[in-house]
Amino acid sequence: MTHRSAEIDRPAPPAALEWLGRLGPLVALAVLVALVGLRNPRFLAPANLLNILHAWSFVGIVAVGMTFVILQGGIDLSVGSLVAFAGGLGIWLMNTVIGADAIAQAAQAAQAAGLEPPHSAIRVALAGLFASAGWAGSEPAGVALALAVILLTGLAAGLFNGLLIAKGRVAPFIATLGGLAIYRSLAQALADGGEFRSASFEWFPLFGGGGLPLPLTNPYGKPLVLAWPVIVFFVVAVAGHVLLRHTRYGRYVVAIGANEQAARYSAIRVDRVRLATYALIGGLTGLAALLAASWTNSVASGSAGLMWELDAIAAVVIGGTRMSGGAGRVWGTVVGLLILGVIGNMLNLLQVSPYLQGLVKGLIIIAAVLMQRLGRTD
Amino acid sequence: MRTWLTFVLVSVLGLGLLGCQDETTPANTAAGARLARPLTIGVSIPSADHGWTAGVGYWAREAMKMYPEVNWVYATADTPHKQISDVRDMMTQQKLDALVILATESAPLTPVAKEVRANGIYIVNVDRGFVEEGIADVFIEGDNEAFGRKSAEFIVEKLNGQGRLVILRGIPCTVDTDRFEAAMDVFRRHPGIEVLGTPQPAYYNRQKGLEVMQAQLAQFDDIDAVWCQDDDIALGAEQAIRGAQRTDIQWILGGAGMKEIVKRVMEKDPFIPADITYPPSMIAVGIHMAVSNLRDGQAEKVGQFMPQHIKLDVDLITPENAEKYYYPDSTY
Question: Which terminus of chain B has a lower count of CB atoms within 10 Å, N or C?
Fold first, then answer.
């Protein structure tokens, strides 16, 4: 107890040995990289390392938010489904803008022929609305709308979770488990079970697919890029680190996770901090959803973001954040994420049977948590 | 600290073990003499989440075994996101000559497929097509519209145009949509066929088939027949019907040609009067084509006559022809 509250008041340098202990995930990552690199030098090729970063940047953005949620003693299971719903809703609206005229014509033609309408009444009404706003057929207008809608949907869903948990006193596990089911279901209902396929081929794919050109080439002689999602992930991680370590909000999050009652007696407005934290992860999930939807220029309603909540939680936990909250680090989460990424990539490189990959991943997660538990008695 | 050292030790041990396994992967050895130069070919398919995809895995491995001189890179994925990573991993970790891919879903895999093509890699796309034209060098698919149409025509004929039908759908995806819409077109032309309720997805999966069928049984009396679209779903639905001791349902129709189902058709089981083929071995066709089109470095010449889009017809399996479709050695 005393140890925990000491950490709230004074996140000053702990004992040297404890620092070494904290660097554990980083040491593990370094050893892993060195070993795989020695075993097969192709692992260290820039193209391969960029692959790992790109593939995991989306979950990484969510995982930074998850670090705050877990730090304050909560959990968010709804983020994976939310990636599908937010991204899907954005593409659906964008396609309604771009195809507004076609939708209106199809509805009229069906009515004239006495057939069942090919689009829902809501979609036809929206198409009419967009047409009257002069957006019909405009790709930039559609993309701008998608961008705003995806980010705001994430934020709104996060606020909703926060309200349920902070004001409604619903346990975070239950509230967000509900979200996990609801958002997946909404995404599938809106897509009629299929995929949301973007009608924008020029603008929308740019966020997730483009990037900064690097003076490097892949094995086929094509130039490499540092993809935007990777850059966004690093910006989010650095901002998250600063937010946690150098702002009052960050201290409050840790304080609430360490001891909610004590935090309350210290005049911390626990409900507000809690609400803000779920809004934060919601907004970040929206950001990840936007980048992921743009990268694939589509959203598969059944499988987009599937299990991302668990990958994000795994990254947080491997990174050394205590599952019960009150102690943890954003950079640890980044390292945990990279460990997960390296493992997956390594197993592919070594052509380990795909059916055994889950086993290795699971063992690493359990080992990491087990070691934290043992480490606490040190 | 001590504990993290343990972690590192465990990692070292684990990697050592994995390293041992690495030695056993097929490499381009002396057998490469058959080829002008050794080929490296990636095979990326969905993981075995139901019987049909397990069959795809079986046929992929069988086909790869036929060409030990090729350096095979094999990966299975449960989601499009994992599959995109798999494809990009194999593309940078190896220098691929070709990629044979059965997409988990069509649209999300399209951008990465474009990237593969931009790198000059030969693409054979199987079953679930990309959403833009001209990405795959060869596209092989089963005819899902014919699948739905032939299923529906059989049902109409067997019911003599009159009856109450329950439909169980598959995984929500284009394959399911094409089959369902084609079947509904047929049913609409036969007003005597009444489709009960809103057909629910049963995910090509036995457990889901059981659950969804139980719900339908509770909701509807006097069902004449059930269209399950898939043999795994059919087996689950059968279990639900037997469990509820319903005698109103005379027969069910699955699909895809699971060997246990084909055997029952062959043995004239009245509950399983027929089946529709949708062979998972189409992945082996794709793998075989990738090897044979690229060997001897004549892909360009081959491209002059090789069709870019191959649609495999699907067949109605009846007791008369079932023997032809029965493969006792396959996993499916």
Answer: N
3-state SS assignment for residue B320? coil
Considering only CA atoms, which of B112, B146, B109, B147 is closest in space to residue B131?
B109
Nearest to B25 among A42, A193, A351 (CB): A351
Chain A residue with CA closest to B200: the answer is A193
Q: Which residue has the tokens 């009515």?
A: A111
For residue B204, which of B224, B175, B182, B181 has the smallest C-alpha distance?
B175
Give the orientation angle of helix A79-98 with respect to helix A121-132, to 10 degrees. Answer: 60
Per DSSP, the residues of A272-334 read HHHHHHHHHHHHHHHHHHHHHHHHHTEEETTTTTTTHHHHHHHHHHHTT--TTSS---HHHHH
What are B42's strand-pairing partners?
B73, B99
List the alpha helices (DSSP H) in chain B: 2-22, 51-65, 80-93, 106-118, 144-158, 174-188, 206-219, 231-243, 259-266, 282-294, 299-303
- Residue B245 amino acid letter: Q
- Chain B residue closest in CA terms to A220: B119
Q: Read off the DSSP letter of residue A268.
A: -
Helix (H) or strand (E) holding A166: helix A139-166
Cβ count within 10 A of residue A223: 10
Of B75, B111, B177, the CB nearest to A354: B75
Q: Which of residues 312-371 of A touch B (CB under 8 A)?
A: 344-352, 354-355, 360, 363, 367-368, 371
**For residue B290, what are its two tokens?**
């990738």
Which of A5, A63, A72 is closest to A249 using CA atoms?
Answer: A72
CB-CB under 8 Å, B172 with A304: no
Three state DSSP letters for A24-49: HHHHHHHHHHHHHHHHCHHHHCHHHH
Backbone dihedral angles phi then psi of residue B137, each to the nearest 5 degrees: -75, -40
The bridge status of strand B200-201 relative to strand B309-312 is unpaired
HEC string of B53-69?
HHHHHHHHHHHHHCCCC
Where is pLDDT greater, at B3 or B135?
B135
The answer, for A217 touching chain B at a CB cutoff of 8 Å, is no
- Of all residues in chain B, the one with the smallest CA distance to A208 is B111
From chain A, pick out residues whose CB is under 8 angstroms from the CB of B121: 220
Residue B73 main-chain phi, psi, to 5 deg: -120, 115
Interface confidence (ipTM) of the complex: 0.84
Q: Evaluate if residue A9 carries a pLDDT over 70.
A: no
Identity (one letter) of the amino acid at A287? L
> A92, A130, A73, A7: which is closest to A324 by C-alpha?
A73
Over the stretch B275-295, which tens digit does the pLDDT of each residue have? 999 989 999 999 999 999 998
Residue pair A333/A66 in contact (Cβ under 8 Å)? The answer is yes
Question: CA-nearest residue of chain A to B79?
Answer: A303
Q: Which residue has the tokens 């209106």?
A: A104
What is the tens place of the pLDDT at every residue in A52-110?
A: 999 999 999 999 999 999 999 999 999 999 999 999 999 999 999 999 989 888 888 88
Containing A252, the helix (H) or strand (E) segment is: helix A248-258
